[in-house]
Amino acid sequence: MRGRRAASTQDRAYVDTNVIVALFAGEGHALHEQALGLFRRVAEGQLRLILTPIVVAELTYVAESLLGWTRRQAAAHLGHLLEADGIEAPEAATLRRALEMYGRRRRLDFADSYLAAVALEDGPARVASLDADLDRIDGLVRVTR
Q1: Which of 42, 56, 63, 101 is deepest in the core (most CB within 10 A)?
Q2: Model pTM score
Q3: Torsion, CA 45, CA 67, CA 27, CA 81, rounded to 10
C-alpha cells in the first residue's frame, strides 16, 4: 500500500506561478525550456498539475504587469489553462466565474472577483466589504455594517 500511495503522488504536483509564467513568456524567458519540458510531460500524460486559486491570482497580476496582457486576454488565457488536459483545478467553476468577472470589470481586481465568485457559487451570496465596486455584481449583497 505504501508504494501505491507514493506512486500516485509522483505523477501529480502543485504548479507554481513561475512555471506557467515561463511557459507563457516564451523563448525569451530564461526558464522557458524547463517549463516547456514540464508541460511536455503533462501533454504525454506523465504528469498532472494542480492549479490553486492563489496561483491563478498571482498569474492575473503577472499577466498584466510582466506579460502586458489586457484583463480580457488574461481571463481568456487563464480560462483555457483551467480547461487544459492534465491540469487539475480544485475550484475550477469558481475560478472560471472569477476570471469572467475579472475580465469584464475594469475596477474589480482578481481577489475581489474571486471572493464574489465564491460567495455566489457556495453561498451565502454576501460579502462583508467596504469596496462599492462589488455592488455591481448581480446576485451579490455587500454587507457594510
Answers
A1: 56
A2: 0.86
A3: 10
